[in-house]
Design a protein that fits this description.
mainly alpha, 12 helices
């Protein structure tokens, strides 16, 4: 039997709170993205989102850790991992949002704990304990409760496939960010992957605009739309990614990904704040998800 010390329990609780904050920040971008999606192509919006995030993280990294840390980072690896983790994942999320509403897209991310735990068990040889199995079942059950309580109709076509593709890219890339950039701090890992992604996607977006004329409809983009883009880029990428990488580094991709199942509740809460209806089923589902994540890590009961 593995018993956590009080210090270890406090550390894990803090890491889980950081992860919850990351999910709330990420969730804020889904309804905000609806404001800008009609006026920008998926590639252009992905590039704009990544550029805004890089403009926040890169200067902060430079100021806090110095010129040497920034210039000495492995930018080639950062650009590749960032392209998959944030570029492709963001692109597929935007495609999914074109076909489904934000709550539905959030619900589809319920598969992330399964992907994350399978990745840890296969790649990292993590033992599949009773606590982990119980936590996973509770997490998935919470997602199912949220889905059953959703008033949204799910389009099991391109939208769902795009959302699933986004989850696969983000789950793999999150683990790879921590594994492939071991010498960097969480801030450095986040900044180098976001900035590397921004450069790659910007080149792709300019090429897409030159070849297809897929430029943003600037005449239709005003303060409201720019506000949505700012939330989608700064809050839902820069802040969320930094908090996410901190939590993944502390509790692993499997446990961190369980928190993704609470995203439908966070999105619903934001929609409710903006005048939408409250959904008790999604609220209950979110509680089950958080409970499952704590059980999987031994914070409730004991893990074998």
């Amino acid at each position: 039997m593995t018993v956590l010390s009080p210090t270890a329990r406090r550390s894990l609780l803090v890491a889980n709170l950081i992860c919850m904050a990351s999910m709330i920040s990420w969730a804020s971008g889904l309804p905000a993205a609806d404001l800008i999606i009609p006026h920008m192509s998926p590639l252009a919006l992905t590039a704009g989102r990544a550029l805004l995030a890089a403009m926040v993280l890169l200067p902060v990294w430079w100021l806090l850790e110095g010129r040497g840390a920034v210039l000495g980072a492995n930018w080639r690896t950062g650009a590749w991992v960032g392209f998959v983790t944030l570029g492709l994942a963001s692109f597929f999320v935007i495609i999914a949002l074109r076909f489904n509403d934000p709550v539905t897209v959030a619900i589809v991310t319920a598969v992330m704990p399964v992907v994350g735990i399978m990745l840890e068990c296969l790649a990292d040889k993590r033992p599949f304990t009773k606590a982990l199995a119980t936590g996973l079942l509770l997490s998935v059950a919470g997602g199912i409760v949220a889905v059953s309580g959703s008033e949204s109709s799910v389009d099991f076509g391109v939208g769902v496939l795009a959302a699933l593709a986004s989850v696969l890219c983000y789950t793999w890339g999150s683990r790879e960010t921590v594994r492939a950039l071991p010498d960097l701090t969480p801030l450095g890992r986040s900044a180098v992957t976001v900035s590397g992604c921004a450069v790659v996607i910007l080149i792709a977006a300019i090429g897409d605009g030159a070849l297809r004329g897929a430029w943003p409809d600037w005449s239709a983009i005003g303060p409201r739309e720019f506000g949505g883009l700012a939330i989608f880029g700064i809050g839902s990428m820069a802040v969320s990614q930094l908090l996410w990488i901190i939590s993944v580094g502390r509790i692993g991709i499997g446990a961190a990904s369980m928190h993704m199942n609470a995203v439908p509740f966070y999105v619903m809460l934001m929609v409710f704040t903006l005048g939408g209806a409250w959904n008790w089923a999604q609220s209950f589902g979110a509680v089950i998800v958080v409970f499952g994540a704590l059980v999987a890590q031994g914070l409730i009961g004991r893990g074998k």
